[in-house]
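Re: Re: token formats

Sure, here are both.
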Amino acid sequence: MSTANPTPRAALWALGVLTAINLINYLDRYVVSAIVPDLKRAMALSDTQLGWLVPAFMLVYMIAAPAFGAWGDRGSRTRPIALGVLVWSLATVLSGLARNYPQLLAGRAVVGIGEAAYVAIAPALLADCFTLEARGRVYAVLNMAIPVGAALGYIVGGLMSAHFGWRAAFLAAGVPGLLLALMVLRLPDPPRGSQEERAALGRGAAAAGASPLAVYVGLLRRWPFMVVVLGYAAYTFGLGGLAFWMPTFLERVRHVPHAEATTGFGAIVIVTGFLGTFLGGWLGDYFQRRRRQAYLWFSGLITLLAAPCALLALLGATPALYYPGIVLAELLLFMSTGPINAAIVNIATPLERASAVALSMFAIHLLGDVPSPLLIGWVSDLSSLGGAVLIVPVAVAVAGLVWLIAARVNSRAGELRAA
């Protein structure tokens, strides 16, 4: 671990490499959504079985995240990230070699071990590379890779599957990570809290000598942290269900051709994700300099506005209705990505930051996108996919309301402390 702050050039290099990893991370996650029809035909799978492919990954991912979070708060941060990227890349390649459903399910589950290391530790590492005032934009850049990677997952998965078969889609998603794993080992790893004021370091001193279990228990008891995470879980429930089932919804319910459903939705996600995440990060930093809890106020309002747009996307019967609904819903949802991640990181102290991110990841997946694809698939098997996806706008509205409540409660708590 370095004993000095990284240079601006080294900090930007770290952001670039970790953003590239995040892009491959989400390409790997969403390549499955693009090949759902091919997997269904090739292995004669039900929608419920297909719905389990995401929870299998997520269950392992969220269980492994706390272990990596504790490692990231106490030891090297670059080595566990590199190990994680290597493991998930190899697991993705092996998914492409699966001969039956249990092998495929196992391959997707092992991916979760590798991705847990990166997702738990990378935000904490970047917090020590950049100042507090820049974090909304830093996390916006990092998280712009989410929509771009997810969209590339749809596009790469759809094109590779159409021309070379579904196995080639997994191979294309897994190989780039092998090179990125080596690049991580050359990144700076500055001292924890190097960008914080002395007061913040003092508040985090207790975490330095605490056991990992004590740190996690303390975070669970911290209301300002947990209420934000609960809102994030509802957000992830809606967004995860929409991301997994939308291409299949367009093909099955709206009768859009398969190639158009995957690549068209992917193109929408790329544009709205890039613009929405960048704009949201910039606006979040702008408002945060002028008002306390602005990250939460902004995220809550924007997410609440996304709910009726998502409803239009799912109920609109013609392309003139459902495509504008998809565009607006995705744009608004992605605008909260940078600010809400900055809010979570800023609530935690520097010496517990990786643990806080890991606990957040555990909670949002346990309550969010682990159950949502499975639940939507199960309801679809019982009734119809068109009815099942209407769960999504409800979850999005709940997320917006919870974040607005959190902003109000945390603002009043800050006023009482100031008094």
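Second one below.
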Amino acid sequence: MRLRYFLLLIAGWVTLGLLQSVHAFDLQGHRGARGLAPENTIAAFGMALSIGVSTLETDLGLTSDGVLVLSHEPRLAAALTRGPDGTWLKEDGAPLVRLSYNDVERYDVGRLNPDHRYAAQFPQQKPVDGERLPTLSALFDLARDRRSPGGAPIRFNIETKVTPAAEVPTADARTFAQAVVTAVRRAGMAERVTVQSFDWSTLVEVRRLAPDMATACLTIESANMNTLRPSPDGASPWHAGLKLADYGNSLPRLARAAGCSTWSPFWRNVTEPAVAEANGLGLRVVPWTLNEPADMERMIDLGVDGLITDYPDRARHVLAAKGVSID
């Protein structure tokens, strides 16, 4: 009788552990913590770590001398860049791919230009003068020994900033993917990195070069941007030649066909059936970018596996109120 009770108790502990693992949540700090500190800077990533995220989300650009730097824009952005003389750029500057890392390092990105319309979106952001665009290797060094609230090593979600039309010049997909794979492997971070992109060409290249490396397929359907709209040949230019119609017009099935382990849709495009379908295919669903607590609550109720936010502090409160543990 005692043995049976003991075995039932052990089974209960195992079941509870599995349930906690299943429901563990991936909280990603968008560009570090863009709502609170200058985006894609060491200050922002440090802020996100202090709040308690499980993943640092960021963007990648490749310089002319092959250095991966953290920047959402593929060029110097007037909204947040001051020159060596301390004056704001009057307009967006040179593409990163035409600048050396030494060139890039001369610019200060530690605060938003108060005269730029972009600044009004983040009234809580605190400036940190003197911040430079960091390298990917610097980000790895910052968080190498850091852990999430759940005790797991901090992960990295890094986005290749390329577009099919190449409105702003960047490295081509193969060059970009090779640089990313090389940097990640050199840092010993392959198990902690996910590579994401709207332009899935780099993701296909990453998977070709490093089949063991996780990728995340980004998508959006909105009035301002739509990566699903097909070209005359039936394939969206964003989807590396894959045709949505060939997969029953199912985005989760399309993302799976591209080799992605995560599907990251714009949060307004998320539906409960799509989440269920994606999970049934073995895909994690991590929408972007949610900043209002009510929207976070709704996404959690739909069963998403994580979220990307400019305000990880708000997300921590929402998750705690719902009793959701962070991965």
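Residues 1-22 have pLDDT under 50 and may be disordered. The chain has one domain: 25-321.
- S.
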